[in-house]
Write a structure and sequence with these properties.
23% of the residues lie in helices and 36% in strands. The chain is α+β, with helices and mostly antiparallel strands.
Length: 145
């Protein structure tokens, strides 16, 4: 299964062309990443500050299919595409009313926040990630990613 969250696109997200400025997508995908943790009972701030694990991005690929504009409700589906010992690749599919807008693959490393060094993904997070390995259903007959 995939996790879904929805973000409201605001006036300040647009550029001079009247569409969402492309770097904003990385912020939106990270918001979805935080929402993913929060919705599963692992508030992201607690994961960082109390559990002591961070998830910095180490690689990303983003593809843009159609514009995103002020007033849109941006649905973001999140699932875990790859799961390694110390890293995981999250897939993101952003859409508006079933229209594909952007997709991304973002690989994050698990780090010990005190030492700022890579560590194996703790079992509690590995089990969480395993539950979200299946991509969402296709949009309007298109591929899932």
């Amino acid at each position: 299964m995939a996790f879904r969250t929805t973000l409201k696109i605001r006036f300040g997200h647009e550029d001079h062309a009247g569409i969402v400025y492309f770097p904003r997508f990385l912020h939106f995908f990270h918001c979805a990443f935080e929402d993913f943790f929060d919705a599963q009972g692992h508030p992201y701030k607690q994961v960082l500050d109390e559990a002591g694990f961070g998830w910095p991005a180490v690689h990303l690929d983003v593809d843009f299919q159609s514009p995103l504009r002020f007033g849109d409700r941006f649905d973001i589906d999140v699932w875990v595409e790859e799961l390694g010992t110390k890293s995981a690749t999250f897939a993101y599919r952003g859409s508006v009313a079933g229209r594909l807008v952007a997709t991304a693959r973002i690989t994050v490393a698990c780090i010990d926040m005190q030492r700022f060094r890579g560590v194996p993904i703790p079992e509690v997070y590995r089990a969480l990630f395993e539950r979200f390995r299946e991509p969402p259903a296709p949009l309007d007959g298109s591929s899932a990613s």
